[in-house]
Amino acid sequence: MVSIARTISVPQHLQQRLGLDFADAAQRFEGRNAIAELLEPWFAARTQSEAGQALETHKVCWGRYSTVGELLANDPRVSLANPVFERMTTPRIGEHLGAGATVRVAHMEREPTTPAALLGSHTDEVLHEVLGLDGTAVGKLRDAGVVAGPECDPSQEGRI
């Protein structure tokens, strides 16, 4: 960071003005907005390739920003090309990629990856087995809207 800052003419007086030492990660974080204001014109004036080359030259740890959609669409590390991932179907969500176990054990076949449980699918089990509530008590909690099962997933009703 300090090396590239010299390259793009980040003034030393910014540290003094803010009372921060950018050699310290916590203080750089504190001054991130001011740093971003100074860096933005430099990055805007260059292609990603040019900026990347300058960052590499100065041994700055960096990576291209991607949205989750871009990552899934363009990066083979998070695709079916990677044996960790496989297609699965989750009720109410549909088909999607899921990550399975990353550890492989010789002479053992890998089990298929299963989707995560739906929100609320274990509510009754927890109330009965962990809290010791009977069916009547659970029914009262449901009627009062305190608890719900997977049939009432708020993420599917626009409540989240």
Account of the 3D structure:
The chain has 160 residues and is mainly alpha-helical. It has three domains: 2-57, no CATH class; 66-115, no CATH class; 123-156, no CATH class. It is 40% helix and 8% strand. It has eight helices and two strands; from the N terminus they run ααααααββαα. It has helices at residues 2-7, 13-18, 25-30, 32-44, 48-57, 68-74, 123-129, 135-143, and strands spanning 85-90, 94-99. Strands 1-2 form a two-stranded antiparallel sheet. Strand 1 and strand 2 form a beta hairpin. The protein is extended, with a radius of gyration of 26 Å. The mean pLDDT is 85.
Keywords:
160 residues; mainly alpha; 3 domains; two-stranded antiparallel sheet; 8 helices; 2 strands; extended
Q: Briefly, what is this?
A:
By secondary structure, the chain is mainly alpha-helical.
